[in-house]
Amino acid sequence: MSLLHPNPLRLGVNIDHVATIRNARGGDHPDPVRAAEIVAQCGGDGITAHLREDRRHIRDEDLARIQAATNLPLNLEMAATPEMLQIALRHKPHAACIVPEKREERTTEGGLDAAGLHNTLVPIIDELKTAGIRVSLFIEASERQLDAALRLGAPVVEFHTGEYAHAILDGDSDRTEKELRRIADMAALAAKNGIEPHAGHGLTYDNVQPIAAIPQIAELNIGHYLVGEAVFVGLEPAVLKMRELMDEAR
Ligand code: PXP
């Protein structure tokens, strides 16, 4: 990162929905690997991919292909299950972000209950950390969940920005302000306790800047909106524009 950015903010691009489009026709086009290559060429900082239990977008074989295609760090989003743990240990991504997962949900609808799932998470986090994988927990920005992440020894948390994004869509400025404050406060508390805060979910050109302006946040993971924009303008211009908006806000 350049000296102009003493507090760099990384952009991880979630390429799941390139695979969603591919899978709609059952063939091999569009290939999420090509998306990963474009992200690498245009200065994205990482690739994020969620191997869901139902394999509705990214599939097992995509992971190795994505890892082979670029030198960018891979952030594997995964449910806290024995199957996903084994897959993570086999592929050894740079990072593993543990997310809640329900089969019937359209997307990851809420944060992980790191507090309630403490005993399930302890061995999974231990094994991931022993394998040298940077563990992140996708949680709501709350003190209860942050405390749990701290007790679990997670080096990273990713704050779920879905409620913030919804509040903006609803035109509710009080709720938007409240959500933003909650994320900013928890990001500061995380950093103070040695946890690196990230954020993601539902981020767009229109709502990214207040989140990008939170100085402790080190990484944003953005997917659906970028892939949607890519349909109209191409993936590279979409990523570059998001990057520009993030830098402008910093
Ligand atoms: N971060 C995490 C942990 C996620 O689960 C998702 C959605 O898969 C994202 C970021 C990206 O969200 P979106 O696709 O809404 O940009």
Looking at the structure, what is the overall shape? Answer: globular
Q: What is the first-to-last residue Cα distance?
A: 13 Å
What do we call the CATH homologous superfamily? Answer: Aldolase class I
**C-alpha Rg, in Å?**
17 Å
Order of helices and strands: EHHEHEHEHEHEHHEHEHH
Q: Which CATH class?
A: Alpha Beta
Q: What kind of assembly state do the chains in view correspond to? A: single chain
Strand sequence of the main sheet, in spatial order? Answer: 1-2-3-4-5-6-7-8
Averaging pLDDT over every residue, what do you get? 95
Helix content: 40-55%
CATH topology: TIM Barrel
Number of strands: 8
- CATH architectural designation: Alpha-Beta Barrel
Low-confidence parts: none
Strand content of the residues, in percent? Answer: 15-25%
Question: Can you describe what's shown?
Answer:
This protein is of the alpha/beta class and 250 residues long. It has one domain (10-249): Alpha-Beta Barrel (TIM Barrel), CATH 3.20.20. It has eleven helices and eight strands. The chain has helices spanning 16-25, 32-41, 60-69, 82-91, 118-130, 143-152, 162-169, 173-192, 208-212, 224-233, 235-249, and strands at residues 10-14, 46-50, 74-78, 95-98, 134-139, 156-160, 196-200, 219-222. The protein has an eight-stranded parallel barrel, surrounded by seven helices. Strand 4, helix 5 and strand 5 (134-139) form a beta-alpha-beta unit. It is globular and about 45 Å long. The model has no long low-confidence stretch (mean pLDDT 95). The structure holds pyridoxine-5'-phosphate. Residues 14, 16, 50, 77, 97, 99, 107-108, 138, 158, 200-203, 221-225 line the site of pyridoxine-5'-phosphate.
